[in-house]
Amino acid sequence: MSLEDSLQEIRSLYKVNQATTPDTYLANPWLLVIVSNDSVAMAALNKPVSFQPVYNLLSDDVNRLSGLSAEEKGPFKAKLVLKQRDAILKGLVAYGCPKAITALFFLNEATPEDIRAHLPQTPLRPEKITLERTESGKSTFSTNYRSKAGLTHEIMYKIFPDLGMVVEKFLYPTLISYTEVTSPQETSLVMVTALFAEQVLPILKEHQQGAKANELTDEQLGLVYATVRCLAKAFGLDQRAFIDDVQKKYY
User: Fold this and answer.
1) Of the candidates 14, 183, 164, 153, which has an alpha carbon nearest to the alpha carbon of residue 87?
2) Which InterPro entries does the record cross-reference, listed alphabetically (predicted)?
């Protein structure tokens, strides 16, 4: 199966063609798949050169939407690209900086210059980590790990204090809990997708529950796993290697 065939198969699951206006397109779960999932999965699966056909689909979708003037289509496309950027950046928690940097480079290459002109030229996240951001990070961490949040926090500091400090003071306050671009629900999809694609099963188990706390259903999570497996098949990877039933002891 080619990448193009895989993308069309995923689009059919989400009935993308039924989204005919900007509002219905934004509300369609396809947005979460193509923006939060496909980009993250491609980064995690180390196939970032595949961003061009994804951008082409997004561009074609926007061009056919009713209710958008010619002048509004460019900024709307830029909004989708910005969500892709933020999703990939958050996904680096699961698959690391090298893949994130490479994926963002190819996403930038796939984005036409006139669309890039609508994107922010300075960082969106504040440079200083305020008390508000710290508390937001703690809240997001608690959502993901629930009753195990305190124990997980303790374990991280015990096995390597610097790990606990980086997660508590930087990754969650600055990266994960920033939701001005990708919502808490989209962020959960980003993390579940990246962890599933990387098969980090112990952490995936916790983030699956965190996703449900953010009101994602088993059906939506199932589509995430189907998306990754579909892309893996297109990239010639063994789909059987991707385990989602992490309630069993695979680690």
Assistant:
1) 183
2) AhpD-like, PTS1_Protein
